[in-house]
Amino acid sequence: MSDDLSRDGYKIDEKSQKILLALYDRHSMPTRELREVIEAESNSVVLYRMREYLQPAELVEVKREEVVNRAVEPSKVWKLDYPGGRQWVEDHREEMAAPSSVEDVAKIAENALETAQDALTQVQEVQGERGYVDHLKSELQDALDEIDSIERATERVEDAVSRAHDQRQRARQERREAAQAADEAREQAALVAADVDGLESEIEDVARKVRLNRLQIDERHADRGEEIGEIEERQRDLHERLQAVETGQAQIEEQLAEISDHLETPWWRRLF
Question: Has residue 243 been placed in a domain?
């Protein structure tokens, strides 16, 4: 049996595979016989898989209903959905029929051994009937060949089980490493978040200081503006006063020049 079979998203488990193989070989079977095929305690195990998996996957359908007892619900007779269901089973028949575990192989080997023992018993009972004995010997040889084939299959299954175990071990180790890496990443993220919070707090402090300094600078600029206005007013006043002084000095110089010219001219020339 295969653990990975599905159709249209519906998982086909081991019991469902046994049901499909039985319907493929027998064409149609009632629920009670299918229950015996999968060794279930009640019909509900069969009906559950029909209802939840095999019918939605369009692999089986109800052929008819049999009234076994009027006091109970009619029993359903099942068959493979044609042609899709039968074709699907035919495509996966070898995969479903193959043993999936050491227990399955051992069970098949046990059945084959019982068949061989029955054949040997029949050989011993009918040794006088040569033709029949040859026939039983042939069946015995076939059974022995099947046992050899099963033993080889057992070795392959054991190897597959060992590889699967190793793969599971590696997968668990990878999951542990991934979980550790995720924890480390979360711790690192927490540290980074703490650093970011600290930087944000420092930025807020610097921003408050900048705003305070800007207010102080604005206040000083306002005071300086008044002082500069007063200085400029005083400069203008001094400039006007300087101009007045320069004008007065020029007038005085002109008067001095006139006096000097007057003094240098003889008195008799001043009469004319």
Answer: no
